[in-house]
Amino acid sequence: MKKASLSGLDSTFQTIINNEVKRNKILPSLGLELHQQKIYALGLYEMQFDEKMNMLLNKWYDNKEFTQITKNIQLFSSTYAPL
Q1: How many CB atoms lie within 10 A of CB 42?
Q2: Which domain holds residue 27?
Q3: Which among 50, 44, 43 is positioned nearest to 1, based on CA atoms?
Q4: Residues in CB range of 13: below 8 A, 6 or more apart
């Protein structure tokens, strides 16, 4: 999912860069500048995507609740299993 999003953004940005470079032949460094900005924007998107996914996954797989339930089961088993 993340790779598809990043490649879609990359191709969209690259199309915009190519169009701007063709239109503005006066500015020789425009292509390099736009390419650097594209890499920066893709990096920000990837960092925000990873941060959001980590937040969501941490909520789904909250290890504290699982360990507490496991301890309660072990306590219950040790208390009532010998009977």
Answers
A1: 16
A2: 2-80
A3: 50
A4: 34, 38, 41, 42
Distance from chain centroid for Cα 79: 45
Distances in Å between the Cα of 49 and the Cα atoms of 5, 14, 42, 74, 82 are: 10, 20, 10, 38, 51
Q: Is the pLDDT of residue 83 over 70?
A: no
pLDDT tens digits, one per residue of 18-45: 888 888 877 778 888 888 999 999 889 9
User: Cα dist. 3→52, 58, 62 in Å?
Assistant: 15, 21, 26
**CA distance linking residue 61 with residue 46, whole number of Å:** 22
Q: How many domains does the chain have?
A: 1
